[in-house]
Amino acid sequence: MKTIKDLNLCDDYLFHEVMKDKRLVIGLLETVLDLKGKIQDIKYVEGEKTIKGGYTGKGIRVDVYVMDDELNVYDIEIQNGKIQVLGKRSRKYQSNMDYEFLKQGQSYDKLKKQYIIFICTSDPFGRGLYKYTFCNLCKEMTDLELGDETTKVFLNTKGYKGDVSNELKAFLRFVEQSTVTQAEGTDSDFVKALSERVEDVKRNEEIGGDYMTFEEKMIELAEIRAEEMVEERAEKLAEERAEKLAEERAEKLAEERAEKLAEERAEKLVEERAEKLAEKLLEENLNNTVRQIASNMKAAGFKTEQIAQICGLSLDEIELL
Fold first, then answer.
1. Among 68, 66, 81, 70, which Cα is nearest to 11's?
2. Can you tell me the distance from the alpha carbon of 268 to that of 287, in angstroms, rounded to the nearest whole number?
3. Backbone angles phi, psi at 203, to 5 degrees
4. Model pLDDT, residue 152
5. Whether the Cβ atoms of residue 93 and residue 60 lie closer than 8 Å to each other
6. 150-156 and 73-79: which strand pairing?
7. What are the backbone angles phi and psi of residue 105, rounded to the nearest 5°?
8. Residue 211: pLDDT over 80
9. What is the DSSP code string of 63-74?
10. Cβ–Cβ under 8 Å, residues 311 and 294
11. Average pLDDT of the residues in 275-289
12. Does the reported pTM lie above 0.85?
């Protein structure tokens, strides 16, 4: 388990504590969004705020949630490791943050600018940029903006190309190596201020104690979640096994039923065929017997008309005997 002195700014706990300083939040926003001197004040900063999605919607957990004096909204998130659905996750953040504002009774036209910023320790899109900025533009006319005033920014601490300020590059390097040495190696006043705050946090015994409690709680929650995942996995495997057995049993029953039906059908066809053959043989034998009787009567001198009347044969048939 890391001690608080081992943490970097990319660790949620340290980031949360450092961003309690409004001055640094403003500095970060101005650096990332190229808004130097444009953010005069922050009305409130809520770290680790849960924003509900309305009705039974799933809530989201935000690291730093900021609203400036013009009611523009900023959400800053630290993302460690690679997240496959980061784009769709940003969409969820946007919708929930809009709901948070609108549930207060505001109309759509009162929605202010919204910025969602992800600070990623792995390249979210694999293109090597320091910063990826997304706004809604018309596909057919790229100079035509939708006007929803939403911006999503993904920062890449592993970036190596793109037209960004030296201050932003220095900040991105500091995120994963939050040391005094790293800060002293840059000309960025903002990064140096961050470094001072980081060191203050790490020296604070009360915060250090809270961190230990936090880590213990996280480990406990992780263990609980691991047990839940084991149970969920076991249940899923059991369901899959039961489903497979059911399918196998169903297939076997279907085969047995099909075989039985085939046997019954074959037996019925055999009986029908036998009856037809028996009728045919009987008819053939009967015809042969009648012809033999007629032949004997003809040989005995019976008249043709008599033979025809008695045996039911035609005169031509009798003549051929």
1. 81
2. 29
3. -85, -15
4. 94
5. yes
6. unpaired
7. 100, 5
8. no
9. EEEEEETT--EE
10. yes
11. 76
12. no
* Nearest-angstrom CA–CA distance, 66 and 43: 8
Rounded distance, CA 191 to CA 177, Å?
11
- Per-residue model confidence as pLDDT tens digits over 152-200: 999 999 999 999 999 999 999 999 999 999 999 999 999 999 999 999 9
CA distance 119 to 153: 8
Residue 206: alpha-carbon gap to chain centroid: 41
Q: Which 3-state string (H, E, C) describes 160-225?
A: CECCCCHHHHHHHHHHHCCCHHHHHCCCCHHHHHHHHHHHHHHHCHHHHHHHHHHHHHHHHHHHHH
DSSP state of 59: P
Nearest to 118 by CA among 80, 148, 168, 167: 80
The tokens 């946090």 sit on which residue? 201
- Of all residues in the chain, the percent with pLDDT exceeding 70 is 86
| Tokens of residue 63, six digits | 């690291």
Q: What is the DSSP letter of 145?
A: B
Of 83-97, 153-167, 190-204, 234-248, the range with the lowest mean pLDDT is 83-97
CA dist 10 → 63, 133, 151, 210 (Å): 12, 20, 22, 18
Instruction: Give 94-118 pLDDT, tens digit per residue.
Output: 777 777 667 666 667 777 889 999 9
- C-beta separation of 171 from 78 below 8 A: no
What residue has token string 């012809």? 291
Query: Which residue reads 């004040």 in tokens?
Result: 41
Amino acid at 38: K
End-to-end CA distance of the chain: 116
Amino acid identity at 46 = E
